[in-house]
Design brief:
71 residues, globular
């Protein structure tokens, strides 16, 4: 991995911010998946973060945003 100063929020931080600061409901769902699939997805996520750090990109607010896209 390349050294980055980007921060990835954990589930507790996201739930706290959603529930208390924004006053909206927040739900946490358990995901059952093989460990190798979870690892591959996580590494793909980290790679996407590194690509965005190298080349920032815009997204369409109605079609792809932090609510509609996993990453």
């Amino acid at each position: 991995f390349r050294s980055r100063s980007a921060r990835i929020a954990g589930w507790a931080v996201i739930l706290r911010r959603t529930k208390h600061q924004r006053g909206t409901d927040a739900y946490l769902y358990r995901l059952l998946a093989p460990q190798d699939a979870v690892r591959a997805t996580f590494l793909d996520y980290v790679d996407a973060i590194n690509r965005l750090a190298d080349t920032p990109a815009w997204y369409h607010v109605l079609r792809a945003n932090c609510t509609t896209s996993f990453y």
